[in-house]
Each structure stands twice: as structure tokens, then as C-alpha cells.
Specification:
It holds the Pfam family MULE. With 251 residues, the protein is α/β, with parallel strands linked by helices. The protein has nine helices and seven strands. It has two domains: 135 residues, Nucleotidyltransferase, domain 5 (2-Layer Sandwich); 75 residues. Helices cover 43% and strands 16% of the residues.
């Protein structure tokens, strides 16, 4: 609040702010970008409390802004056939809007954002709209690998709009976060939780398929036969052991 007060009192703002009301400011900026013609990065825009007859999937209360610059379009055409990654970021603004970012990986192994979708929604419907707008801009992208978090909505929407992908992978960061969140299922002190977590990290990074299968069977057996780790063992077996090809490094 102090920073907001200082910004207001000293008239500190940023160059893209067109109006003190954020909704009006965004609409004015979108209009400016659309006036760029072929260089416009705006693929789609729907303000809140406005009907959109072209996309009946969105409700009046919904907000959606999809952006892809000319450079980003070139990047997804060039690198998209190899890998596509998508992730969402929330909690970064006062309106509870989420930022969904589509990325490729360039020839140097560096992630390159190729499209953005700002919306109050984070479901399959908005992702289908996101990907369909990209398809209208650059055509069908057929990657060899699709990486996302553990929620199925991203991949389901992609497969509907762009088609199935040979290899679907889960983001390691999200897998790791889910494991850490569920360590509470383990009874006992932090030492046992730490041991289980470190064991899973070693398992995750094994690069031999045969070695991985042997180790995973042993890990599950050890977890299930220990009363303190039994509940976590069931969680791991049901949620990860049956689809190790989407998260284990060896695949």
C-alpha cells in the first residue's frame, strides 16, 4: 500500500498505462496494438462484462487477452515441431487473472515464450480458445514433445486443437512440488520425510530404464511395508508409478 501511495503522490507510472482505470487502460492499449495492422500482436481480446458473439464459450464476466508478436510467431513455426511447453502463473495481480505462457526451446536449449493468454479462467475451454487462436495465426503445430503440469486441461485442449503428441512429459518442478506437498502423509519426524524425498529424487534422475524399473519396484515395496510411509506409498503407486514414462528422466 505504501508503494501505491508513493506512486500516486509522485505520479509515478509506466509507459503502457493509458488510463487510471486498468480495464480502460487495457482496452485503449489493445486498440493501439490493433491499429498496427499485420504487426499487431493481438490475437484475441474480450473485456469483462462484454458479450462476444464469436466465442459463446466465454461468459459475460470472463476476461481473455491472447498475445503473439510477429517474432514469436516465427519462433513457434521454427522450434514448435520439436518441443512445446505450457505453464500458468497466478496470484500476480489484484484481479485474480492468470497468465498462461506457451513456450518453445531454441537451438541453445533456452526457453522462448511464443504466446501469452491472460484470463480469469484456467480450464480446458479457455485453453482451446488459446490454442485455436494460435492455430489461426501460424497453422497446425505438431511437436514431438508436449510438456505441462499435471493437470490434464492443457494437453486435452492441445490434442483437440492441434492433434495428439507422440511424447507427453510432466514438468519436473511440478512433480517435485506435488511430492513435497504430500510428504505430510508420512508419519514420524522430518528425518524420514527427508529420506523418502531424497530417494524419490534419485529415482527421478536415473537414466537407465532397466535400472529405473528395478529401483522403482524396490522403492514402492519399501514404502508400502513401512507403516509410517504406507499412505505415501499408496499415493505414489497410484499417481506416479503407473505412468513413469511422463516424469522419469530415463524416458
Amino acid at each position: 500500500q505504501d508503494l501505491c501511495n508513493i506512486s500516486r503522490d509522485f505520479n509515478i507510472t509506466y509507459s503502457t498505462k493509458r488510463h487510471k482505470d486498468d480495464a480502460v487502460s487495457v482496452s485503449l492499449w489493445v486498440d493501439e496494438m490493433r491499429n498496427l495492422g499485420e504487426d499487431s500482436p493481438i490475437l484475441y481480446y474480450k473485456a469483462q462484462d462484454v458479450d462476444d458473439d464469436d466465442n459463446s464459450c466465454l461468459e459475460v464476466k470472463d476476461f481473455a487477452l491472447i498475445i503473439m508478436s510477429k517474432f514469436q510467431a516465427q519462433q513457434i513455426i521454427k522450434f514448435g515441431p520439436d518441443k512445446i511447453c505450457v505453464d500458468g502463473t497466478h496470484g500476480t495481480n489484484a484481479y485474480d487473472f492468470q497468465l498462461h505462457t506457451l513456450m518453445t526451446v531454441d537451438e541453445y536449449g533456452t526457453g522462448c515464450p511464443v504466446a501469452y493468454c491472460f484470463s480469469n479462467r484456467a480450464d480446458e475451454m479457455i485453453f482451446k480458445l488459446f490454442f485455436s487462436q494460435i492455430k489461426s495465426k501460424v497453422g497446425v503445430i505438431k511437436p514431438e514433445i508436449f510438456m505441462s503440469d499435471d493437470a490434464p486441461a492443457y494437453y486435452n485442449a492441445w490434442s483437440i486443437i492441434m492433434g495428439d503428441v507422440p511424447h507427453r512429459l510432466l514438468c519436473t518442478w511440478h512433480v517435485d512440488r506435488n511430492w513435497r506437498k504430500n510428504l505430510c502423509k508420512i508419519k514420524g519426524g522430518p528425518e524420514k520425510k527427508s529420506l523418502v524425498y531424497k530417494t524419490l529424487r534419485v529415482l527421478l534422475q536415473i537414466t537407465s530404464v532397466d535400472e529405473f524399473k528395478t529401483c522403482q519396484d524396490q522403492v514402492i515395496n519399501d514404502l508400502l511395508k513401512d507403516e509410517d510411509t504406507h499412505a505415501f506409498g499408496i499415493y505414489f503407486k497410484d499417481n506416479y508409478s503407473k505412468r513413469s514414462e511422463v516424469w522419469a528422466y530415463c524416458y
